[in-house]
Amino acid sequence: MPSLLYLDLRFNSFSGQLPDELFNRKLDAIFLNNNQFQGEIPQSLGNSPASVINLANNKLSGNIPTSFGLMGNKLKEVLFLNNQLTGCIPEGVGLFDELEVFDVSFNSLMGHLPDTISCLQDIEVLNLGHNKLSGELSDVICSLTSLVNLTVAYNFFSGLSQQCSRLFNIGFDFSGNCIPGRDMQRPQPECSVIPGGTLNCLRIPTPRPLVCASLPRIIFSNNMQSSSHHTSSSSYP
């Protein structure tokens, strides 16, 4: 079906791995949520020109591919929630200046948030809840002016910037973390060992302040270094 633009297989019982070819097609919308797909998301994800991709409520595992940032620049909605994804949130997330929804909740993602999130100026729904993310919640997230729904509940974040402190008081969900002096946080024993504390997210240093227009060059450099490391070392994390 070479002319197919909209693939909707939601709410079925399809299983098995996602084929590489899926993301090589010129599909504008991919809806595979609420099935039984398993295995890793193919690296070919970066070839997809889709504006909406929904893989929620499956059994997908492994990392979000580093090629994620190479997807088409018209991406508006990404829903990977309620899978079994691990590893880091890729730096490439910041390349999508038209992205409105990014939901990776109910997985096992770890590490610190990439600074590149601050470039998501159109983001309205950002749901990172129920993972194992850590570090400080900084203005990287809380300065996003289009946010309508921010959820970082039930992670292991341990601090708030001044801007985030303001959001804490207006209804966004920061509960179930390790933020001192705040209500509805984890018991202290749960905060003594941070999951993924030694995880290497392979971040490339970014300028301060971050210049969003420079992101494509930075992310491309990161992907090249990751690929080189992967092919030259069997101990790649």
From TrEMBL:
The cellular location(s) given in this protein's UniProt record come to: Secreted
Domain of life, per the record?
Eukaryota
Per UniProt, the keywords (alphabetical) are: Leucine-rich repeat, Repeat, Secreted, Signal
Quick one: where is this thing mainly located?
Answer: secreted
Q: Which InterPro entries match?
A: Leu-rich_rpt, LRR_dom_sf, LRR_extensin-like_regulator
UniProt keyword Cell division present: no
- Does the keyword field hold Signal? yes
A single GO CC term, please?
A: extracellular region
Q: What stretches pass through the bilayer?
A: none
This one is known as Leucine-rich repeat-containing N-terminal plant-type domain-containing protein
